[in-house]
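> Could you send the GTP cyclohydrolase FolE2 prediction when you get a chance?

Sure thing. Input:
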Amino acid sequence: MMQLPDIATHFEPDSQSPLKWVGMEKIALPMQVRCDQTSVNINTLMDVFVSLDTGAKGIHMSRLYLLANEALVGTELTFAQLDKVLKEIVASQQGLSQSAKLVLKFELPLNRPALKSSYSGYNAYPIELHCEHLAGKTHCKLISTITYSSTCPCSAALSRQLLSDTVEQQFAEQDNIDKAQLLAWLKGPQGSVATPHSQRSFAYIEADLAGGHLPDLAHWLALFEETLATPVQTAVKREDEQAFAALNAKNLMFCEDAARRIKATLESISEITDYQFKVEHQESLHAHNAVVYDRKS
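Output:
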């Protein structure tokens, strides 16, 4: 077979400086992830990189694709598997690289039951997994997004005050209000004097994981949905919508309140070595968002 030229080894590089990461992005990769003892199929976009040492013109890029494709397609996403692939990727470069990085991005489809009715539906949760093999050790970071509803405590208090004032005016000439009359008034359109503003809100959570540990993603997501208490819904009938409104009333939240809930949950997880997060309330009152950033350090 005719010997083909290898530019990476037969030509001098323009510069002798090393490069941090060289590789490819957005490689399609079907995989599986275990959630609640069940394997879930996911369509992953993978980024794969290696470092480039001083004096080398370029990496063996095709080896990254072929190795990751062979090792990961159709397999279950585990720390052991990722650690093995990262080590093999470094070895495939034959001394040109000392480090490797994988970034896996996908949406995890999970079935969520309605709050009251017998219906259910799927939510798609954006997930990113960043894994680096540095100095002989593999480190992983999990990035997840939780979407929830937040109702403003200040707006709720103002709405209650306005309702109270309106009831006072409506029944000003009566020393004793008839219960049936009051209930009828409240159930009518005039009973909606004011409503507190709510908004779709987002928690973007980045957690550095202890070596050898990848959490069950279904449990991970459910933990933060329970922390915030008002996750967005899928299938909704009238009884579900009413239950959701009641949940929001029980969990009035400024962005600071949501952030403190998330922080307390993150601090309680021993497998997390470091974290940072952003809370974003996309307000219906303002044209701007209310935001909190925080981190462990």
